[in-house]
Amino acid sequence: MSDLIQLLPDNVANQIAAGEVVQRPASVVKELLENAVDASATNIKLIIKDAGKTLIQVIDNGLGMSQTDARLAFERHATSKIKTANDLYNLHTNGFRGEALASIAAIAHVTLKTKQENQDLGNQIKIHGGDILSQEMVSTPKGSNFEVKNLFYNIPARRNFLKSNTVETRHIIDAFQRVAFTYPKISFSLYHNDSELYNLKSGNLKQRIVGILGANTNEKLVPINEETEILKIEGFITKPNFAKKKRGEQFFFVNNRFIKSAYLNHAITAAFEGLLSHGYHPSYFLFLTVPTKSIDINIHPTKTEIKFDNERDLYAIIRSTIKHSLGQYNVAPVLDFERDATLDTPYSFKSKSQGNTPNIAIDRNFNPFKADQNTNYNYKKKEVPAQWESLYLENNVESEIIENIEVDVENVSQQLFDEINDAPTYSTYQIHKKYLVSSIKSGMVLIDQNYAHQRILYEKYLAKLTMDGIGNQQLLFPLKINLNKSDIEIIKDIQMELQSAGFQISKILKDAVVLDAIPATISESEVVGIIEELIDHIKNEIPDTNFSQTDIIAKSLAKSLAIKSGTRLTQKEQEDILNKLFLCKEPNFSPFGKNTFITLTLKELEDKFN
Asked: How many domains does the chain have?
């Protein structure tokens, strides 16, 4: 039998590797930005077109590369970061595996211009689909200029799996922000379709946070700073009263590398226990510095997950540090129920002197229980009515009254049972303020009141948005909603759909939107939460076949306005949900694919008792 195993050609191997390294345009942005940072750049410029599908360009003023290094950079496993396996546990840079540029070049048209400071001319290399087309000397500024065009041009299937431009742009902005947060002393700028989204100057961390998220963020921040033998933690958290329903503004960095950790996130949530309303999440920007030998950052292709040697110790330190900061800056509320507010000194008297102490004359020999006191007291005996006996009934009168009282015990009991028998019988019952139970011919049905109401509202809003739009209510005063720059871009993309949904936008500012009218079905106090949830749904790609913006808005409104679990419903409200649910086109599932009800047959119920 002939041999079956053979070595893959380099171009095929690179395309396979690209499946791990390059999942979407944002993956390319992340790798190129991190390379620019590792090259000691002080100014980095990112240019994208069509959400990175047409062009991703990163220009930096870093060290640049020689002619030989420019060629080797696109070879697999070629890197300047590590030489031995032990170097994996002592990493101080970002890229180290040497696969990124080779993977990118395998699935795009790549042009690199680079020049070192001591060179007169730079070097230009062009690669299409992993094949080097040319390499020549050119005039170019110091640093590197990467152009990645027509991403996934030779893998149509992968290109078809990309999301809409709105979603892909959102991922690119996320990647940009993570690198920009990590290195506040480097200037960053971002341009999308010739429009400037960010122009971040060199500064400190707080200035960088404000530059990315908007000027209104400044008042929300509480500084965090603690250093122990195993962990140094610094950064900022937001005050509890600025918590949001979305989790977007939560950033963990370990040794200047962005990571995701549900375990450490729980430590922060635990520190805010009792300070946040249900469903709200704090924002944080925390930088952890740990010994490089205590972590393994090579356990995930995107390097966003890290394995810690002492995770439980880190959890305890983070939790206690944040609780301490919340108390230190008087963010945590302190309630003193014993204090009498009427005893507080008025502000007008705080600066005044106490004055002279008044003289009080006291007779220390006075004793009211001694009979020989020489003090004159005029006691007046209370007059008693002459006919005081009339206030009381004679025994025989009382007995006579009691004897004349007739109680028909039998009639009263019968009346109580008659009232019970005449009471209306209901077809629905509420359990634990969460589920509705109703009997059906074949058994019984259990309905989740929240999911059921979501389905009802979703079909209602979708029909209105598609046909004639949801009516709105004019606001007496315009409502200003503060948002960060990336969220503003999403609002611009869905402005027409928001108009149909009843949100009348009069102005779109750099870091805020102004509403003149809101949907008639919601109150003004609910608007901010709904807008934030809507933006979060778009960022997190609500599952949908065609990713219709109208559909997303309908789902967001339904989720935000649906009756929540824990709400007590009247009998009429219970029956209303039951009837409207089974009039829906798809009553079985919520807009997000959750079961709205389950049924139990009589046979299943009988089996429970056997």
From this structure: 3
Considering only residues 133 and 416, tell me which one the structure prediction assigns the higher pLDDT. Answer: 133
Start-end of H helices in 476-570: 485-493, 495-500, 527-539, 549-561
Tokens of 376: 């004159």
Q: Is there a domain that residue 448 lies in?
A: yes
Name the band, by pLDDT with cuts 50, 70 and 90, for residue 287: very high
Rounded mean pLDDT of 547-558?
77
Instruction: Burial-class residue 288 by CB neighbours within 10 Å (0-12, 13-18, 19+).
Output: buried
Token pair of 588 as six digits: 């079985």
Tokens coding 113: 């211009």
**What would the mean pLDDT of 448-475 be, rounded to a whole number?**
85
Mean pLDDT value of segment 185-196? 93
**For the domain that residue 43 is a member of, what is the CATH number?**
3.30.565.10
Query: Is the separation of the CB atoms in 576 and 452 below 8 Å?
Result: no
Task: Among 176, 200, 224, give the residue marking a domain's end.
Answer: 200
Higher-pLDDT residue of 123 and 440 is: 123
Q: Tell me, yes or no, whether 405 lies in a domain.
A: no
- CA torsion sign for 526, 529, 531, 533 is negative
Same domain assignment for residues 243 and 172: no
In a domain? residue 38: yes
* Position 410 in a domain: no
Using DSSP, state whether 261 is helix, strand or coil.
coil
- The CATH number for 294's domain is 3.30.230.10
| Same-domain status, 584 and 453 | yes
**Percentage of the residues of the chain whose pLDDT score is greater than 90:** 25
Task: Quickly list DSSP for 344-377.
Answer: SPPGGGTTS---PPPP----TT--TT-TT-----
Q: The whole model's pTM is what?
A: 0.68
What's the pLDDT score for residue 546? Answer: 44
> What range does the domain containing 515 cover?
435-599
* pLDDT higher at 570 or 19: 570
